[in-house]
Design brief:
The protein folds into three domains: 1-60, no CATH class; 66-154, Alpha-Beta Plaits (2-Layer Sandwich); 159-271, no CATH class. It has 13 helices and six strands. It has helices spanning 2-9, 14-23, 30-42, 47-60, 83-95, 131-139, 157-163, 166-171, 186-201, 203-210, 220-227, 237-249, 260-271; strands at 74-76, 81-82, 100-106, 121-127, 142-144, 150-152. Strands 1, 2, 3 and 4 form a four-stranded antiparallel beta sheet that branches. A two-stranded antiparallel ribbon has the order 5-6. Helix 1 (2-9) packs across helix 3 (30-42), helix 2 crosses helix 4 and helix 12 (237-249) packs across helix 13 (260-271). The protein starts with a helix and ends in a 7-residue tail after the last helix.
Length: 278
């Protein structure tokens, strides 16, 4: 797990990693924070800079009521989430500016000393001022079973595309340039090529509409070339993430063909399984 985390964070810029240490520490597990700091040390960041990042976080979260972000201002949400579902929860709460932090891992079984990724469960603590809002938001996408665990409600592929956070998903995938041995049908290639070329032309307006940059814009031309070469191209994780970004960009537009819903569903299920925790 440590090696996987390091390989993920090696793909991220140092300024971004320092920002996570300074501003988002409660959203990361201790193992993830150690991996981030290890990567930064390898890049020449000294201990004083790392210590300043920790102190800046502590200074920004004082234990008083002025900004209401001291630990006592948070309430633990009853119920826990799987590691895979935590990715969606993380994106949802950040999108709605709801302060939260992830609590310690809960093992799904005591029979073995080490749990698998799928067995790990996490609880959340939500800022009391936003607790009811967060609970209502989460209950739109999850239901709590008899054992106290949150389970994801059945949602359409369009809703899954809409809720995707590409920054989170991309940084949780290791070896993105590894060939996966997957391919698309002739019909999928044609329709993906059309939408990808459209996104290449409309990138500026789409970024304004989405209010964020396109994470995989630089891969679009190469991906279109692969789509036009049936049988000879090897598609990578980066290519699949590019597909999801193309489909997310046009999910509510008339140009989006319903036949690509199944394509999106298959890619989402493939990429979102066994994600490493950030």
């Amino acid at each position: 797990m440590a090696n996987t985390l390091r390989s993920v964070y090696c793909e991220m810029e140092s300024d971004y990693l320092m920002g996570q240490l300074a501003d988002h520490r409660p959203e990361y597990t201790p193992e993830a924070l150690e991996a981030i700091e290890a990567v930064l040390r390898e890049r020449g960041v000294d201990e004083e800079e790392l210590r300043n990042a920790r102190e800046n976080f502590n200074a920004a979260k004082p234990g008083d009521d002025e900004n209401g972000l001291d630990p006592e201002a948070f309430t633990m949400l009853p119920g826990d989430f799987s590691q895979t579902d935590l990715l969606l929860v993380h994106a949802m709460l950040r999108e709605h500016d709801i302060p939260f932090f992830v609590n310690s891992t809960m093992e799904g079984s005591g029979a073995l000393p080490l749990s698998t990724i799928a067995e790990r469960r996490y609880t959340l603590s939500i800022h009391t001022s936003a607790f009811d809002r967060a609970k209502a938001l989460l209950e739109e996408h999850f239901h709590c079973d008899d054992g106290g665990g949150y389970q994801r409600r059945a949602v359409s592929v369009r809703e899954r595309l809409r809720s995707m956070d590409f920054n989170d998903l991309a940084t949780r995938r290791a070896a993105e340039d590894e060939a996966l041995g997957v391919d698309f049908s002739t019909q999928e290639r044609r329709r993906l090529q059309e939408l990808s070329a459209r996104l290449l032309d409309e990138a500026d307006s789409v970024e304004q509409r989405l209010e964020r940059p396109l994470f995989y814009f630089d891969n679009l031309e190469g991906f279109i070339t692969k789509l036009s070469s049936p049988g000879s191209a090897e598609f990578t994780t980066t290519d699949l993430l590019t597909v999801l970004e193309v489909l997310q960009a046009y999910r509510d537009e008339p140009v989006y063909p319903e036949s690509l819903d199944q394509t999106a569903q298959s890619i989402l299920d493939f990429l979102c399984k066994d994600l490493p925790q950030a």
